[in-house]
Amino acid sequence: MRILDFGSLNYDYVYGVDHVAVAGETISSYNMEVFCGGKGLNQAIAAARAGAEVYMAGLVGEDGQLLMDICKRNGVDSSCIRKVPGISGHAIIQVDKEGQNSILLYGGSNQQMTREYIDDVLGQFGCGDILLIQNEINLLDYIIDKASENGMRIYLNPSPYNEKIKSCDLSKISVLLINEIEGGQISGERDYDKMLDVMQEKYPETDLMLTLGEKGAVYCCRGKRYRQDIYKVKAVDTTAAGDTFTGYFAALMQEKIPVQEVLAMCAGAAAIAVSRKGAANSIPIRDEVNKFCLHK
Ligand code: RIB
């Protein structure tokens, strides 16, 4: 089973701060590091580190060689990634003492997708393949429609949630991976069981993976709900923890592993990512996750 991750590739400029700056405030940072990130890239690497056969599609700028190289180094096929004129996407990330972050995105090449490029990539995939996609690139609605026509199963993580999601036909999504805030925005509900009720009624063919921060996660599939707690660790940097969960989930669901075990491993992988600095580089390999879960 092949996973095509069609998404963003970013350079993350990460600043260590005492607290995240509020409107009108100027603060100093105590260090700055540059990492490879982007929800697309992070999720592709997570799925590959979980053991799946992963292909990354997306656009980088003239400065994007490192982003292509990190895919290759992690066993992600990068032959669909194209270089375009201009600069790659980037993120300005503040990380506070508790490891919480605030992210400002610049789309750059991630916002230059064309229908021709999308048709070319999707022409190489079809029935039996998985499309994993997020909301950091343009023409998301077109990609969903085309992949669905091709017979691909679509895993959508609609982050960061915005108006663009309203133009996407969510009934074409096989698995929707959302957090509590996105669940509220889509369903209009605050209680998570009610969120799932509303979404299940609206999209009966779609499985729902709802992550709830400190409260863990719930997976809702064909009328059944599976709950998973988080593993408590000291948070160093929460960046890419959600992407780690998502990439692991997309990969492990293709294996014949019981759902509850899949969820435990996703929670373990995310916990390890939280305990490390950076984005793509903080994602653990499968062996680390197995060992971590065994000792919990
Ligand atoms: O989910 C974390 C990611 O969001 C970061 O790597 C950053 O690039 C933004 O896309």
Description:
The protein is built from nine helices and 14 strands. It has about 300 residues and is of the alpha/beta class. Helix 4 links the parallel strand 9 and strand 10. The structure holds alpha-D-ribofuranose. The site of alpha-D-ribofuranose has 16 residues, from strand 2, helix 1, strand 8 and helix 7.
Topology, element by element:
Blueprint: E1 2-6, E2 10-16, E3 31-37, H1 39-49, E4 53-57, E5 59-60, H2 65-73, E6 82-83, E7 89-95, E8 101-106, H3 115-122, E9 130-133, H4 140-149, E10 153-156, E11 175-179, H5 180-187, H6 192-202, E12 207-211, E13 217-221, E14 224-228, H7 241-252, H8 259-274, H9 286-294
Parallel strand pairs: 1-4, 1-9, 2-7, 5-6, 9-10, 10-11, 11-12
Antiparallel strand pairs: 2-3, 7-8, 12-13, 13-14
Helix pairs in contact: 1-7, 3-4, 5-6, 7-8, 8-9
Bound molecules: alpha-D-ribofuranose.
The site of alpha-D-ribofuranose (RIB) has 16 residues, from strand 2, helix 1, strand 8 and helix 7.
